Structure to design on (89 residues):
C-alpha cells in the first residue's frame, strides 16, 4: 500500500507543478505559444476549464479558479488515499 500511496503523491506533485507553471506562464503570454506552453495547455486546461466556467474572474482580471482547482485536486488525492487504504488495508 505504501508504494501505491507514493505513486499517488508523486503524480499529484507533478500535476500540481504543471498547473503552477501554467499559471505563471499566463503572466508572460508569449511563453504559452512555444511547445512546452502548448503541451501544458493541453494537459492542464481540460481540468481548469470547468472551474473557470463556474468561478468568474475577480474585478475582471484576477482569476482565482486555479487556486480552487488545486484545493479540489488536493481533496481528491486525500480521497484517493482513503480508498487505497480501504482496499489494501
Amino acid at each position: 500500500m505504501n508504494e501505491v500511496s507514493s505513486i499517488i503523491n508523486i503524480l499529484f506533485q507533478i500535476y500540481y507543478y504543471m498547473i503552477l507553471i501554467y499559471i505563471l506562464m499566463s503572466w508572460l503570454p508569449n511563453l504559452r505559444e512555444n511547445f512546452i506552453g502548448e503541451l501544458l495547455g493541453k494537459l492542464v486546461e481540460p481540468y481548469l476549464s470547468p472551474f473557470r466556467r463556474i468561478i468568474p474572474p475577480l474585478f475582471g482580471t484576477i482569476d482565482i479558479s486555479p487556486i480552487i482547482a488545486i484545493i479540489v485536486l488536493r481533496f481528491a488525492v486525500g480521497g484517493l488515499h482513503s480508498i487505497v487504504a480501504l482496499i489494501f488495508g
Q: What stands out?
A: Residues 65 and 71 are 10 Å apart (CA to CA). The chain has a mean pLDDT of 87.
